[in-house]
Amino acid sequence: IAADGTVLADSQHDASSMENHLTRPEVQAALQQASGVGVSVRTSSTLDRDYAYFAQEVKDASRTSYVYRVAIPLEELNSESRHLLIAIGAAALLTLAFTFIPIYLIFRQFSGTIRQMVAGARRFAESDLQHRIERPGSSELGDLADAFNHMAVQLGRQINQLRAQRNELQAIHQSMNSGLIALDLQQHLLSANRSAEQILQIDGLASRGRLLHEVVREPDLHRFVANAIEQPASLTREFSLARDPDVVIEAVSQPLRDADDKPVGLLVLLNDVSQLRRLEAIRTDFAANVSHELRTPITNIKGYVETMLDVGVDDPEQARQFLRVIQRNTDRLAAIIEDLLALARLEQPDAEKAIEKERVPARQIIDHVLAQFEPSIRERTINIRLETDPDLSVLVNTSLIEQALGNLLSNSIRYSPPSTTITIRARKRDNQWIEFAIRDQGQGIAPEHLERIFERFYRVDKARSREVGGTGLGLSIVKHIARAHDGQVEVDSELGKGSEFRLLLPVS
Questions:
Q1: Distance CA 199, CA 193 (A)
Q2: pLDDT value at position 360?
Q3: Which one of 53, 290, 499, 506 is most buried, by most CB atoms within 10 A?
Q4: Alpha-carbon dihedral sign for residues 210, 214, 216, 219
Q5: Are strands 263-272 and 358-361 parallel, antiparallel or unpaired?
Q6: Handedness of CA 119, 125, 127, 132 (dihedral sign)
Q7: What is the predicted pLDDT for the residue at 463?
Q8: d(CA 497, CA 501)
Q9: Packing angle, helices 474-484 and 398-415, rounded to 10
Q10: Beta 189-192 vs 179-184: how paired, if at all?
C-alpha cells in the first residue's frame, strides 16, 4: 500500500481493482504512530468476514513510505490459538506430571519413614526400650533414627539402674525389723513396710493414699503424728496400743523433705519395745528380789552374832541354838550364791558347746535323782509312780540333767500333800523329743503365774515358798539347762489338781 492508500500488490486479489486503503484503521495507525505499527480487528467490507489486520510502515532509500499489511481470518487465528493453548496445556500437564510424581513418591517414602519413627518413639514411650528403629536411606533421617536408638539404650540403662536401686531400697525397707511409715502433710499414708503392717495390723497396699486415722485406730499414734507434723524437730514417744495394752511402741519421727529441702511429709519409725520393757521390769524385780533374798539371811546372821556378842556364850545350849540358826542362814546364802553362779555359767553364749555330753539310759538318770531325794519322799510318805521305757537313752550332760530333774522333783515334794502320788515319766515324743515329765497332786498354779514362774526369784506364794525352803532360782536353772541342751521346758497346771512339768530334750 502506497502512502496515498493505493494498493500496489495483494497476494490474493488483483491490486488494480481494489479500492484505496488509506482510510483503513490499521494503515492510519501505522502511518501515524512513531512505531510504524498498526493493528485492527474488524469485519472486512470486501469479504464480509472477521479479520485481524497488522500493518507495518517501511521506507525505501528515498524515504518514500509504504505500508505492508497482513490480514488473518479470525477463525484461523482462533483455531491456531486453540491448538496453541492445547499444546501449552499438554506441555504444562506433562511438566506437572514429571514434577509432582517424583515429589509425591519422595514424599510418600519420607512420610512412611516418619511414621515408622513416630511408631518407634511411641514404643519407647510405652517402655519398650528393647525396640530399635530401622535406619532409613536418608542420611538426615538415619541420623535421627540413630539418635532415637541411642536414647533408648541410655534410657534402658538408667531405668535398669534406677530399678535396681529401687529394689535394693525396697528390700532394705521391707527387711527392717522396725516399722516404717511415710505420711504427707495431710496425714495420707504414702507407704508402710512389712513390720509396720504387722504392728498396726493394716494392709499397706490397700491403705496407701488413705488418711491415717481411717486405717489405724490408735489415738496415741494420731496425737504423736499431729505433734510431729507441727514441729520440724525429731520427736520420740512411747505409748501402748489401744487394742493390746501389753504392746509398748516407741515412735520416732523425722521430717520428710524434697530435693529443695522443703518439708513434704513425715517419716515415723515404730519399734516394738514390749520385750525390752518386760526385761527391764524383770531386771528391776530381780535386783529387788536378790537384794531381799540376801538381806534376810544376812540380817538373821548379823542379829544372832550381835546377840551372842552382847549376852556372851555362857549358856552353851543357847549358843548352839544361835549357831544352828547362823549355819542355816549361811547355808541358804551359799545355796543362793551357788545357784546364781550356775545360772551365770548356763547363760554364757557358748554354754551348749562347753558342756560335755554322753549317752546314758533315761532310767539311770531318774534312779539317781530318786536316790538323792529318798529321805524327803519317805518323810512325806509320797508315792512314786514310774512310767519309763527301759531301752530309752539320751545324749546329755548327766549332772546338769540330774540337777534339772532334781529341782522339779524337789518342788513337787515340797508342794504335794502327804500320802499323794508323784508320777515320773520318760518317753520319746513325736520322734523329735525325749520327754521327762514330773506330775504331782499338789495345789496347782494359777494361770496368771504360769508365764513368770521360770523367772529368777519369782514366787507364786512368797510367804509359803520361803517357809518350805528353796532359793527361788530352781525353775530358772531348769529352763537354762534345757536351753543349754537345745531343748525346752513346759508346764501344765490347774488349781486344786496339781501340776506337770516337762523337760524336752532333742532325740539326736
A1: 10
A2: 92
A3: 499
A4: positive
A5: unpaired
A6: positive
A7: 45
A8: 14
A9: 150
A10: antiparallel
